[in-house]
Each structure stands twice: as C-alpha cells, then as structure tokens.
Amino acid sequence: MAKEYSRTQRIGDQMQRELAQLIRREIKDPRVGLVTITAVEVSRDVSHAKIFITVMGQDSAEDIAQNLKVLNDASGFLRMQLGRSMQLRNVPQLHFHFDSSVSRGAHLSALIERAVAEDSQHPDAAAAAAAAAEANSKAGEADVADKE
How confident is the model at residue 2, as a pLDDT? Predict the structure, then answer.
C-alpha cells in the first residue's frame, strides 16, 4: 500500500516553511519584494526543487524577472542555510519560478463579478433564465414520473 503523503511532499512542505523564513530574514537585497512561496515540487531523487513564488504589489514582468534573478542568484546561499536547518543528507538544487495562478485567479474572479453585475442590470434576462431553469426542472420531474 502506497503512502498517501510521500517523502518528497514532506520535504517540499518543510522546505516551503524554511525558505519563507530564510527569504524574509536573510535576503537583504532591496530588489526583493514581498515574496510568497506558493508551492515547492521536489524531484523523486531529491536532487532538484522547483520553488513557485508570487510577489505582492509588483505586477510588471520586469519586477518579477528581477525578483526571480535575485532569488536564483541567492539559491546557493539559501541551499546552504537549508542544509543547516533541515536534516537531509543531500539538499536539492533550488530553481525559482513565478506562479501566475494567483493573478490569473484574481482576473477570473473580476470577470465573474463583472458578468454578475451586468446580469443584474438586465432584469428581463434574469427572469427569463429563471423561468427556463424552472421549466427544465419540471420537464425532468415529468420524465422521472413517466419512467416509473
């Protein structure tokens, strides 16, 4: 029976916690903004780790690229610090990547809110949609009654 929570996942979770603290405390570069680590994927052989980050308040591609460059340049230092704090025989190589899922989710949420606001401005369309939904449910009930 396979474990539900693999060793690489446990290592990734611990690395996420440790890296969040290390970046906040140890990286003194003013080019690094408010970095949030969203996920860590560790390879099966624990030789490489992809660290996915988001940067709060910096949406331009240039700012994101600059943050990634600084973090990738500091990966050796961060790896050394991880080796001291985590009890691993081999600490994986660190590769930082930008996680666009947070900004994409905010964009989709804004689109949904805008669509709902537009629908509420057209009461006739909303009433027609509600009537169509009710007609569909009655048709479904009739089909069930016919089958019995």
Answer: 55
